[in-house]
Amino acid sequence: MTFIEKLTEYIISSYEEQLKDICIVLPNRRAGLYLKKHIPLKLKKITFAPSVFSIEDFVCHITGINIADSLSLITELFHVYQNIEKEKAQSFDEFLYWAQVLISDYNDCDINLADTVQVFKLLNETKAISQWNLEQQPLTEHEKDYLDFYNSLSKYYPEFILQLLNKNIAYQGLIYKKAAEKIETYISETKFQKIIFAGFNALTASEEKIIKTLTQSGIAEILWDYDKYYSENKNHEAGHFSRKYKEEWNLSEMKWNEDHFSEYPKNIHITGVPLSIGQAEYAGQIVSEMSDSEINSEKTAIVLADENLLTAVLYCIPEKVKHLNITMGYPLANTAAYALFESIFKLFINAEKYKSSENYRYYYKDISDFLNHPYSRSLLNTKENPHIADHLIETFYSANRSFFSQENIRKLLVNTNLDFIFEIENNLISHLNEILLKFINAFRKSLEDNKTQNSDMEMEYLFHFAVIINKLKNITNESGYINELKTLHSLFSEISSTTNIPFVGEPLKGLQIMGMLETRTLDFENIILLSVNENILPAGKHTNTFIPFDIRNAIGLSNYKQKESIFAYHFYRLIQRAKNIHILYNTQSDHFGSGEKSRFITQLLEELPKYNDKCKITEQVLINNISLSAQQQPILIQKTSEIIATLQSYIENGISPSALNSYISCPLKFYFNYAEKISETDDVAETIDAATLGTVIHHVLKNLFQDFINKNITVDDIKKMHANSAKACEEAFRICYPEGDIKSGKNLLISKVALKIITNFLNTESSFIDTLNNAKQNLFIKQLEEKFKANVPEINISGKIIKAVLSGNIDRIDQAGNTTRIIDYKTGNINNNELKVKEWDDLLSNSKLSKSLQLLCYAYVYMNSINTDKISLGIISFRNIDKGFLPVSIPDAADGLFNREAMTEFENILTAIISNILNTETPFMQTEDLKTCVNCVYSGICNR
To answer: In Å, how far from its chain's centre is CA 917?
Structure first.
């Protein structure tokens, strides 16, 4: 028999003829709903029902005071604060940082009937002692302000209470306090002949006074819900309050203190599961293995110790569940609508932060977050043009700018459903309230026109947000103290985080999903309890309060020790009547130790089997087999006829040295890039990256040397280049980094680095020319940044003739004395081993020779185009500029030069690489060199 069923029998057997004159008070409303269902089923006749209250509703019934919402409490307290502190008062934004903590402390004091003024006087004296010093040095201004703050906390209380009560509103603790003060009067005025308090455990001081006064007067009685397993074990924390009340209230017996743990068998399964989502999936698996009768009656409950798991659990509920009830509110801050409004706030807060003169500048990531949100996309895209959102986002990214002016954005959004967002007026705060409401109306209309399965739920979200924003609008217009967007944002976040949306369902039918507090007085045969980890069940010791533990303990305020006893009671009471219990915990450790299972599990394993040998406990830990197997299985892509056709077309049009190097370093990387054409996601370069810096330097050098092609370059020519280098650098950044700011911050430093690199390079060139001149030789530039193509001899692959073309883009070809040189510029560091080819076959597999392969490709295409017999290949590294020209060393070349014999050898290498690429017998596979994967854009696909 469940507690509610037993309570029903007791009420009917004891008060059947006077039901309309009795009142039952329970810990929460959900318990009252179950009780109202059971009474008529048991009674089997028509009569007036008893009054059923939650304890919160009961104290409101006694006092007639309404519970205030958090926004009203904050604004009322700020009025009091301003009136008392006057010109010393902080801004509203600063006030928000501590206001909620103070209200919580006032609530704690009142609900526990503590003298608030005395508490804060004691707190102030404690803080004063902490500032005491043996040297008797005077306090600093900061220390004085510190003490003044704590001294003032008690001043606000009486005025704050007066303001609230004048409006007949209050926070919870104040209503409880007023109910305790009025309880004697209530006894003489109440119409109830009997008041029954049922299912309570840890009572606050105000609840104790109310219940004790009523029971001593004879008008009330209290029915407990304890089990001897923990209530009669003086060391068991779950029974702490039962032992406390039995002793302090001088109770000879406690109705009801039963013995379910010793009398009935239990099957308890304890399972460690990695990650929160893993727990949700495993819970869904447990439900899927249950019978339909177990699932679709109210016998089974999924209990979430961590209520943030709700969404994940809902996604994992199997389809066989026909009826589902969620006994908890869904936080408004977890909705998609909240994420959208947060993106709008962020957009405008940063726009104000980065504005130049009077012009707002919008950060590209903020714009992207806003436009990428599903709500924004649904408003932008139309049936006529379903890709407007993608086009807009692509436009913002392709501009490669960090900031956009209001005018820029309005031009892009003109004639769209979101053009009103950027119609900024003088008062940005008022404007933001208005556009949030406009957005709600626009999206509400869209939902009405395009009904979906989730439309009703989304409409509910929008309604709650409209209420919040209208409240903020009224406060903004009336108060005059919300002067900054971040203040408005703080208030919006505060209200949203404390607002829950109730779910509508069949509360007395089907699978129940609830939080720990909702389980009070309710019993289920089958329990699936998630997140039974330390710091969740029980919660951690941290409490956000101004009042230290010692003071809280001394004056009877709630502290972490009491909360641990409360959590223990909820845990054991939940399972005391259950038959089948699944306890899940997260095994995944993080910096906060979340992988540690709760002490309640250890306690259960150690003690319960000794207390009742009919209780069977099994324990297991699951591993993430999916991710392990994914890491162990190599990825192999077989070469289909479609893939071969794509690659053959690419090779016939001209395969680049970088593509060849890509295949050698990792065939799978080559496949992703050149067969599937999967490219890295475009992003805006907020600061100049290494690739852009390299492009700028190449561009500058081409411009500086362009006018000297086929001329004998002198030291005087280099001096002229020095004079033009700064201007050339600026021009190059304008072309390669359009709209980018190089006048400040990191970009300014990078632009100076670029100019320094150019200067160092020109100095090295000047020294090299001097060396050549001393040997009566000259330097001629032949070509700069030239594109070349050359045919590779036809390749026979399984009887099919393949025509291949090698293409290249060579940085510089010059003639130093009698030697033709092919030069590749590099901004990175160069290791000599990268330029030493010991055996030609090394080029087929050694990815460390990629720079050598690149230069050999350049030599091959150049020698195919120009009638020359010898070429010197090398790199000029801007990072190793003092080393000058770094030549490539090739096999069987005494002079180190690339010649016709070397060309034939390298031709064999080229045909071998291309043959391998098109060979259907060898699949594309991952590289075995994991160092290659470190900076690979496809590492996420490969799970490397």
So the answer is: 42
